[in-house]
Design brief:
18 helices; eight-stranded mixed β-sheet
Length: 426
């Protein structure tokens, strides 16, 4: 039997940076997909064949599958053969501010939403990056809502509903390619759960579907991002040391990486986004006494924006009328995603210091977030900003910034957190 015959209709819960591309790719394989989101605006945009996020070529795929009727967005879940949950897992908010404990309320809301439409034989997959044990919680929550159905925790392989975890592991800017090409780690609560999840992913994944249990699959994603975070922390700490010792960190890293067993990552203004800056805390939250290195890496990377801010303030005080061009607001290059962005945090804090006129350059957005526009930060083109500024702060390595003629910066003081300008001068 063709796998597309097993899954005639798939529901994707959450149509953000992961959910929408996933829904579109599955629909492009000829399977009917219903995407569910809490935002009426997002639903309307998608149903019009357009997209509400920036991701290369996604608009083409969405327009195609919406036009052919294979993808449709709605606010309310409908019966389907499989449900993929791809909603955020941020930190909890406390009266004192944001904690470092995971907030599973979005996942719980998604579970409550799909519970009424579940039927025997359904598959529920959690793609949201989550603390170890979350897949088991989903099964328990569903069992509370649907006592007429059986679940893996009480019926094993014979359960009416199959439950599995399959963490997303794609790079923004390359999501469509990596959704198809990358290997997937699939952790079912039982062997039959894993088997059915593999059948679903094999409808569109060309990479290998590697089977494990749910807890190991959850920990796999957390481990991948913690590994990256720890290594970035080393690079960021090295850059701070080099600033103090008056050493060009970019030249140093290039030299050190000539060693056959050394591969130092590139430093930056910090770490942002919805994965690397968040996921390590899920491990720390579960094992605070054991995860000391992982916790310290988070502290190191979270403190890097403060180091950059101090550098910029010191330079600004050298000018009678400082005009500071801040290049980039997103958390990484060539996307519009500003979630947890250290670049955005730096510009926000600089705006609160009243140290001069701030110009933001972000080619991937049309208007500034309110946190900047309310503080009289100006959004300008790259050429316009470089013409006016006497201080330039490179915060994101967008392609447009890499093409800047070094002559345009000759008379300016440059704080380069990405090594774009500095490496040109070496």
């Amino acid at each position: 039997m063709n796998k597309t015959d097993i899954f005639k209709k798939i529901s994707v819960i959450g149509l953000g940076y992961i959910g929408l591309p996933t829904a579109a790719v599955i629909a492009s394989r000829g399977i009917n997909v219903v995407g569910v989101d809490v935002s009426q605006k997002a639903v309307d945009i998608i149903n019009a064949g357009d997209i509400h996020i920036v991701e290369p070529d996604l608009d083409i795929v969405v327009r195609s599958v919406v036009t052919t009727g294979k993808l449709r967005a709605t606010l309310t879940p409908e019966p389907a053969d499989a449900f993929i949950i791809a909603v955020p897992t941020p930190f909890k908010e406390t009266p004192e501010g944001e904690s470092k404990d995971p907030d599973l309320s979005y996942i719980k809301a998604a579970v409550n939403a799909i519970a009424p439409v579940l039927k025997k034989g359904n598959l529920v997959i959690l793609e949201s990056t989550s603390p170890v044990g979350t897949t088991e919680k989903i099964a328990a929550w569903l069992a509370e809502e649907r006592q007429d159905l059986s679940f893996p925790q009480n019926r094993g392989d014979a359960a009416d509903i199959k439950v599995a975890h399959c963490p997303e592991r794609v790079l923004p800017g390359y999501v469509l390619q990596e959704l198809v090409a990358n290997d997937r780690v699939i952790g079912g609560m039982t062997k039959s759960c894993s088997k059915k999840a593999v059948e679903l992913y094999q409808t569109f994944v060309k990479g290998e579907c590697v089977v494990t249990n749910a807890r190991t699959a959850e920990m796999s994603k957390l481990t991948e991002n913690s590994f990256r975070d720890v290594n970035i922390a080393f690079a960021n700490e090295l850059s701070i040391i080099c600033d103090k010792l008056k050493i060009n960190v970019w030249e140093l890293i290039n030299l050190a990486n000539r060693h056959p067993r050394v591969n130092i990552l590139t430093p930056g203004p910090g770490v942002g986004g919805h994965c690397i800056a968040v996921d390590p805390w899920f491990i720390v939250s579960s094992c605070p006494e054991e995860a000391k290195l992982i916790a310290q890496a988070r502290v190191t990377n979270d403190s890097k924006p403060s180091h950059v801010i101090k550098q910029v303030i010191k330079i600004a005080y050298e000018f009678k009328h400082p005009v500071i061009a801040c290049l980039g607001l997103t958390f990484k290059a060539d996307i519009d995603d500003m979630r947890g962005s250290p670049a955005l945090r730096i510009v926000e804090e600089l705006a609160g210091k009243d140290i001069g006129h701030l110009i933001a350059v972000e080619p991937n957005i049309k208007q500034l977030p309110k946190s900047l526009s309310s503080r009289n930060v100006q959004l300008d083109s790259l050429d316009g900003a470089l013409e006016k500024a006497n201080v330039v702060v490179v915060l994101v390595d967008h392609q447009e910034f890499k093409l800047v003629d070094i002559a345009q910066l000759a008379a300016k003081v440059v704080v380069d957190t990405r090594g774009i300008v500095v490496t040109k001068r070496v």
